[in-house]
Design goal:
Length: 95
């Protein structure tokens, strides 16, 4: 077994992505997670263009095709029951 070169604490999206990228480059990684199972309660997830670029770099873009999702058409900023403002998408993005 190769000697660990990098220890990553936390196997959430960032830790797991970093581990994958390092292993693909031949770096020995130990990924440490306190949770005993992979169950996570997601409280809203979004991918910005840079996140989509990172997923493509990891070679995982095709996996996204089967994930239920909806495209955002606007951002609404609401405090209490009052909408402060709304910005339609895209906000200068090419995606």
């Amino acid at each position: 077994m190769a000697m660990t070169q990098v220890v990553i604490v936390g196997s959430g999206p960032t830790g797991a992505a970093l581990a994958l990228l390092l292993v693909k480059r031949g770096i020995a990684v130990t990924l440490v997670e306190a949770a005993k199972d992979a169950y996570r309660v997601f409280r809203g997830e979004g991918l910005m263009p840079s996140g989509l670029d990172a997923i493509a770099q990891m070679g995982l873009s095709t996996m996204l095709e089967g994930v239920p999702h909806r495209q955002i058409d606007a951002w609404e900023f609401i405090v209490g029951d009052r909408q402060l403002f709304r910005v339609d998408e895209p906000m200068g993005s090419n995606r």
